[in-house]
Amino acid sequence: MKKLSARRRHPLAALVVLLFALAVTGGLYAAFAPADKAQADDAAQSLAIKEGKKLYAVGCASCHGTGGQGSSDGPSLVGVGAAAVDFQVGTGRMPAQQPGAQVPKKKNIYSQAEIDQLGAYIASLGAGPSVPTKDQYSPDGADIGKGGELFRTNCAQCHNFTGQGGALTNGKYAPSLEGVDPKHIYEAMQTGPQNMPSFGDGSLSSENKKDIVAYLGAVNSDDTPSPGGLSLGGLGPVSEGLFGWIAGMGGLVAVAIWVAARTTKAKKS
């Protein structure tokens, strides 16, 4: 009887074995599953960089150099980030058709997948702004009033207060922002394309940029009324003053001619 008692298992032995098995299973999963996912992500990123390098060699290297270091025909792309590629190529500004004071927007010749591959390659050359997520430029939860205040303070000097654009010096101009993809507006603030300064998170936070994007979407919406009547393209007091000057002066000239004609006719009679 004593030998049988000695061989009897402890009541908690089965529970200990079960817990040990669960711990081993969890440890193995934690050790191998994330690694597999990370390896898959690394492989996909490496493939994107490889394909992007091929696209770069064909469409970009002639101006920006074989390694993105820049040349007399194009600036260095080291450190500009994937956001700059997504903006410039996504709006058709790059590749440029010809040199000039400013590269205009045109029809895009790359698919979004190809743009992503180009962006991955350029991002591998040096750290820079990444492509924003939809949550960053979506109007949901944005403060439109705050966006209008920020836009008038930082952007209206060139783009005017509703983003209709305006002329700059030496043949340059601030393009209209009406109908521009919200993602591209956000990226322009991140990267500062061409004549535009860049607004990093130190000067305009991601929330501030989101508010500005929402403001532009609101003022350029077809559902937004013009309380002053004819908006004249939203170009502001300069165009309105010019219209008033031309119409007013034209009216005065017409009245003067009419009065002179009447006076001459009266003298003859």
TrEMBL record:
E.C. code: 7.1.1.8
Residues that hold heme c 1 according to the record: 60, 63-64
Signal peptide: 1-30
Broad class of the protein's primary localization: membrane
Entry's transmembrane regions: 242-261
Places the protein is found: Cell membrane
One cellular component term from this protein's GO annotations in UniProt: plasma membrane
GO terms for MF: heme binding; iron ion binding; quinol-cytochrome-c reductase activity
Keyword set includes Cytoplasm: no
PTM comment text: Binds 2 heme c groups covalently per subunit.
Record protein name field: Cytochrome bc1 complex cytochrome c subunit
